[in-house]
Amino acid sequence: MSVLIVGSIAIDNIKTKLEEHNELLGGSASYASVAASLLAKVNLVGIVGKDFPAEYIELFRSHGINLDGLQVVEGRTFRWSGEYEWDMNQRKTLSVELNVFEDFSPRLPENYRKTPIALLGNISPLLQHRVLDQMENPQFIVADTMDLWIATARPALLELLKRIEMLVLNDSEARQLTEETSLIKAARNILRLGPKYVAIKKGEHGCLLLSRDDFFSCGAFPLEDIHDPTGAGDAFVGGFAGYLAGLGKKNASFADLKKAVVYGSLLASFCVEAFSLDRLKKLGRKEVEDRYELFRLMSHFEVIE
Amino acid sequence: MSVLIVGSIAIDNIKTKLEEHNELLGGSASYASVAASLLAKVNLVGIVGKDFPAEYIELFRSHGINLDGLQVVEGRTFRWSGEYEWDMNQRKTLSVELNVFEDFSPRLPENYRKTPIALLGNISPLLQHRVLDQMENPQFIVADTMDLWIATARPALLELLKRIEMLVLNDSEARQLTEETSLIKAARNILRLGPKYVAIKKGEHGCLLLSRDDFFSCGAFPLEDIHDPTGAGDAFVGGFAGYLAGLGKKNASFADLKKAVVYGSLLASFCVEAFSLDRLKKLGRKEVEDRYELFRLMSHFEVIE
Q1: Which of A144, A297, B42, B285 shows a CA-CA span of 20 to 30 A to A238?
Q2: Under 8 Å CB-to-CB from B287, ≥6 apart: which residues?
Q3: A292 near B CB under 8 A
């Protein structure tokens, strides 16, 4: 099965306390697509300007990503600059230029419309709706969102929740959306709003996956060094959706979704080991599978005798 | 096997945003002993004043805790008052009265000296040394510590690390002790200072257990409501040491220590469900074992097909 991925494609300037790199490939769709491409065929939907470097187009192509849904238009590509504190959970945005992204209206080519799995990356809920409107009988829709849309587009987001199988968001966003401090209560409230599943990301502390009846607590793969946390959440949902598509089942079980969450966590762990997509783009499936087994062993404990 | 536990015994006043309770049983040895008593025979070492309520003595006795090492002296018991923010990871100390604890010198009764497992609860490293000096051939010593001792008694703490099998501390303390931001690097540095094992507690995010060759990442049991986080870390080490003692093995394997860490996490999860020891004191072993199995199921994921 293939997976449709829509989101932003950006040129980033990123500063950490130790390094600074400019003109990097970024954006939610870039991270998610390259992560997913290890596990399934990806149909990308996005927009870039004429200034978008050919080498980044080539990077997508070399990962077998279908670019029929990529609009290349007059103007400059979306740009973002950010800076991380020593505590890399803290970052500040130095500048944002929407550029061509300002007038983005996702258009699905005919050959995308029947894609069975879709990842609605972190863009306005209105645009996420517009993608759904163009799809035919999707099997599993997973949507990402962020604090900005919860604050400014709540009605459209609440409508979206009725149309998707799964919402992914981080812990502070789950609290913001539900006004609950307990993440489990927040998750249960979100399930009441429509989706069958919700995943709450806890950054370096892993992630929770809930359905009405099931619960999975997934740790994060422990890393000695984190070079650039940008895109970790996008690599997570990309890995998740890619695993689900690669599995090719019509009805994925909760056990399947748990594995998909682990794949997502691992793709995120590779993502942050280098700036931009520098680690993801060189990653092989075997490396991911080896880390999966290592992670399984280090998370495992025996039953009581 | 039995376990020797030394630490503070206190009367606490605790305020959260929702509740306030005074004259509560508190202190590291109280939490750790009651938690451990579910799993093994406990030899308690501590000090209280003549004002210490008889009902709390009775609580220890009813849990089969040996009080031969409890000094009851003229004066007032150690007192602590604290207040938690909405984010219960944040608390401020409102007042501390050391009282009889100021001149505490742990004395081990003859029948304690050969206890095979010892938990050196969170007290000054000098006192922890004094306990060790009185023990005969202990098999497994686990010590807890805190930021205060790392800052004010570093040489004694470093000496202690050469005499113990395992150090338990929280994430910020591990960073403080080693001046490493990465917890894994911090843990490796601590192992180089002497102990065979180190456990780094991450509060509501679980705990890491490391040896030179092995690694275990343990999540925290997810809770909907936390009423009082006081003593969670003490219940953790108490549960850990109690499980190890109850196991009764001369040489515990890493798999055994992983289970002990899970027991510790679960005892901590019960601890925070009520103020003071109100939940721990009513807890039965069966409840802990049921939660163990539930936790195992919710943390488990399958191998790749």
Answers
A1: A297
A2: B270
A3: yes
